[in-house]
Every structure is written in C-alpha cells, then in structure tokens.
C-alpha cells in the first residue's frame, strides 16, 4: 500500500504562487481560451474558482471529497459525474488551495488510471496526492463499465474520448485551469491511453508513463489466459483477428508521431508489463524523435513507487 505521508515528505517543497491573472481578469491570464470563450457564466454570477459551481448540462453531479487533514490542507478534491458520448462517467479533480486562495489559474495534469472496468478503480486520493506534490490541478476518470460509470470498456477505443473530454473541460470550461503546458500521466493500461491522447490531441504538451503498455500485441502474447480474455472482450478479437485495432492502441508502432517530452518510469522485473517489450523498446525509439527521459528500477513493482512523485515533480519543472 502506498504511504501517502511518505510521498508527501519525499515530494513536497514550499509552493510558489503563480503570477497569473485571477478570475475575470485579462492581465496575466495565460489560459489558451479567453474568458469570453469559456462556456460558463461570468464571474459575477458564479465563483469560477469554486468547482461546486460548475454543474451544467455536461457535469451533472459534484460531491466534495474528504481525504483527511494532510491532503485537504493542500488541495480540494471533488468527485463528479460527466457526460461523454452520452454515457455517465465518474471522475475526480483535485485543485491546489493556492489556486483557489490566490485566485490564480494553475497548470493541469490529466491522470489515466490502469486496470479495466472495476479492476484498479480510482481511489479518491489518487488525484489529491499528485496535486499536493506537484501543485498542479489533477483530473482523472474511471474506465467505462466500472465504478458508477456507464458504457463498455474498449481498452483504448471510444473510451479515449473520456480522456479528451477532461481536456476539453480544462480548456474551455474551467477558468481556474491553465492548459498551456498540459501534462497527461498514465500507469499500466493508463500508459497506453496516455500515448494515444498525445497522438490525438495536440493540446497535450508532455506525457508521463509509469509501468505502461506500449505494445498491446506483445502484451497479449505475454499475458495469462485471463488477461487475454479481457483484451478479446474489450477489443473484439485477438491480434490476429484485429491487427489494426491492436496497433492503433500500441505507441511502439507510431513513435515518430510523438514530438513532445516523455518521461517513462518502469521496473526491470515487472511481470505484468514486460520491461523489454513495453518500456525499453519504446524508450529507444522515442529518443530518436523527441526528448525522452527513461527512469528504471531494479525491483519488480508494477505501478507507482513512493519516490516517483519527486521524480515527476523535478521532471515537470525542467520540461
């Protein structure tokens, strides 16, 4: 189990307030969308730094989350239900208190979780820990078909639209969000979604992949029968039956289309996402076309290391 106190101790340092224009201000506002382009009411009608005020036809339920004194002293976290392709999708967002108190837009990170359907569901602290350490707004959502979320998990099919929808919200709706340096982070299967989001959406400026999947064809071949059945169900067949569908989800086949900085973190003994076929090969290819930082561990952990947040924070500061 991840030790939140240790992560905060490793990754936290004194936060520096951003010198950006406040809600409704033109001076210093570095958002890519102007206030007139935002699809919310004016600041006079609602508080654009209060996420509870963003109920509308697309965000249909918002609930504040209690993450305990340590995290709540650094950020506010909300669960919310939003519509994507007509499906109700559950998400979480954490907003730095410095953003709210100083009335200054903050940079954003979209977090793509691992697993499938209910397996590996988001914890309410997942976005909060990343927010508290990075001082970024962090937003993420569940996969379709699991944990209060409608639709069917397609493992990087139409469910990618849910990730893009989160980016849309930060770009055109949330006045507290600055997406100029938008980062997407993904773990395990979320790494696959992260690569795909970077390929599809040019608003993504940096990506981070922890224990990620980059080649779904070899991932299928190396998986146990239970995981093979999950992929067949989600994608509609095997790699032999659906070769283009598997390759479309596999960044190793189109690394030349990723031109933004990439941070890859992977354990050499990872038995769920093979180090050689899912990390080493794509890191080597990406270094030919972009700025790729490759961090490795000698252990067999699949997923998040407590040290990762300090690595991520330092990397974000440089990129």
Number-wise, the strands total 9
- Derived from helix and strand composition plus strand pairing, the structural class reads alpha/beta
Put simply, the count of helices is: 11
* End-to-end Cα distance: 30 Å
Return Rg in Å: 19 Å
Largest sheet: 9 strands, mixed
Short description:
With 319 residues, the chain is α/β, with parallel strands linked by helices. The protein is 31% helix and 21% strand.
Report what the structure shows.
The protein has 319 residues and is of the alpha/beta class. The chain is 31% helix and 21% strand. Strands 1-2-3-5-4-6-7-8-9 form a 9-stranded mixed β-sheet, with helices on both faces. Mean pLDDT is 89; it is low at 13-44.
Task: List descriptors.
alpha/beta, 31% helix
Secondary-structure blueprint:
Layout: H1 4-11, E1 59-65, H2 69-72, E2 75-84, E3 87-96, H3 97-102, E4 106-112, H4 126-134, E5 137-141, H5 160-172, E6 177-187, H6 189-200, E7 206-210, H7 216-222, H8 225-235, H9 243-248, E8 262-267, H10 275-286, E9 292-297, H11 308-318
Parallel strand pairs: 4-5, 4-6, 6-7, 7-8, 8-9
Antiparallel strand pairs: 1-2, 2-3, 3-5
Helix pairs in contact: 1-4, 1-11
């Amino acid at each position: 189990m991840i030790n939140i106190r240790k992560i905060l101790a490793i990754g936290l340092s004194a936060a520096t307030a951003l010198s950006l224009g406040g809600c409704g201000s033109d001076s210093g506002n570095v958002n890519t969308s102007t206030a007139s382009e935002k699809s919310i009411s004016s600041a006079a009608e609602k508080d654009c730094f209060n996420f509870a005020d963003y109920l509308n036809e697309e965000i249909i339920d918002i609930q504040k989350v209690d993450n305990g004194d340590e995290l709540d002293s650094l950020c506010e976290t909300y669960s919310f239900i939003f519509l994507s392709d007509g499906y109700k999708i559950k998400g979480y967002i954490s907003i730095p208190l410095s953003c709210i108190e100083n009335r200054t837009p903050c940079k954003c990170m979209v977090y793509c979780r691992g697993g499938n359907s209910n397996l590996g569901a988001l914890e309410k602290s997942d976005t909060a820990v990343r927010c508290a350490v990075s001082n970024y707004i962090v937003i993420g959502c569940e996969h379709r078909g699991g944990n209060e979320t409608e639709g069917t998990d397609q493992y990087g099919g139409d469910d990618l639209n849910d990730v893009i929808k989160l980016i849309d919200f930060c770009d055109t709706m949330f006045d507290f969000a600055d997406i100029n340096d938008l980062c997407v982070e993904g773990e395990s299967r979320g790494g696959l979604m992260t690569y795909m989001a970077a390929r599809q959406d040019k608003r993504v400026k940096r990506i981070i992949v922890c224990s990620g999947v980059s080649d779904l064809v070899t991932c299928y071949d190396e998986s146990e029968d239970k995981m093979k059945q999950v992929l067949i169900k989600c994608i509609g067949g095997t790699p032999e039956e659906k070769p283009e569908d598997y390759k479309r989800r596999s960044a190793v086949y189109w690394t030349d289309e990723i031109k933004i900085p990439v941070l890859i973190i992977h354990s050499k003994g990872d038995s769920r996402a093979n180090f050689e076929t899912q990390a080493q090969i794509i890191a080597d290819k990406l270094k030919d076309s972009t700025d790729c930082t490759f961090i490795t561990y000698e252990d067999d952990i699949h997923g998040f290391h407590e040290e990762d947040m300090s690595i991520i924070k330092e990397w974000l500061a440089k990129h």
